[in-house]
Amino acid sequence: MANTSYGVNAPEAVKLWSRKLFREALKSTWAYKFMGESSGSLCQIVTDTQKGPGDRVRCTLRMLLTGDGIIGDGTLEGNEEALTTFTDDVFIDQLRHAVRSGGKMSDQRIPFSVREEARMGLQDWWADRIDSWFMNQLAGSRLTTGLGRVGLQAAEEPTTGHVVLGTITSGYTTETQVGSASVSASNILSLAMIDNLVLQAKTLTPQIRPIRVDGKDCWVLFVHPEQAFDLRTNATSAGAGVTWQHIQQSAMKGGEVSNNPIFTGALGMYNNVIIHESTRVPHGGSATAGTLTNTRRAIFCGAQAAIMGFGRGFGSSRMSWTEELFDYRNQLGVSAGLIGGLKKAVFNSLDYSTIVQVTSRTRAGAT
After folding, report:
1. Burial 86-97 (b: 16+ CB within 10 A, else e)
2. What is the pTM of this model?
3. Which fold has domain 11-38+48-62+84-140+307-345?
């Protein structure tokens, strides 16, 4: 009987396993549901450096025209308006990891394929890395050390007007200022805070553009499970006796349920804000003042809140996959790598599509 098998680093094996690895890794990645190549995605995947050389992707934002125009037979020539544009650079770099078997005798004792287990281990590792990139960049958290966990470039702290401390909407404009302040124990996440975030999104310049989901304009709010607990149990979360339970019951009755990936796994929706929880939502604080362990920073996002890029030969369907034999062909080593990067969108020195809401948490004794 003839058997089909692929040896170490056979071209067919490399292509097969590299495609399989990233496809499964992205399925395991929580952040992938928010990614897409359109400008309407929360995290836009740009492809410029997949086609040519370079270590960065330069993204351009065009501001809205503000001129009054010319009425009637007035002269238009000489009254044209210049375009106003700003740029932001997403840097890409290489990140790799590998596993190695104990040897042929070690492999003999186990009932599974070392190659398959290596793929699954690397898959889980890459899913964790990409999810960490996504959340640390959006939150602008510089509390996490190591570029491998923050998108292969330093995270940028929230900018002026894009951070809220508790219920205070002014006076705290950067992560450093918030990091040196204290948050009242009573400033737990509430629906009223979400109302305030929506108001800010609509009144900032430029406005935070919503994401179009099944014909409906929505924003997304990422919260820590402790903040979700506070939101659910806050008896007067939106005032006048309106609670989280009331909001969700009304949404269900109104048919506001969707199979769209952005809705999948959501806690619910309030004031056109789809709420998701993640254990990766970081603490408040700053790199200079340290971690404020009694706080978490919820992250309000619109379209193009983050940008992700890949290098040549890489992308949403392929990573590098290399197999090597060591110790006189006794041990199998497997490595997987990626050239890419992810960052929060910042144009004209201002966060483009995020607002960080720093709140206290009821379980303040937890880590």
Report:
1. bebebbbbebee
2. 0.84
3. Major capsid protein gp5 fold (3.30.2400)
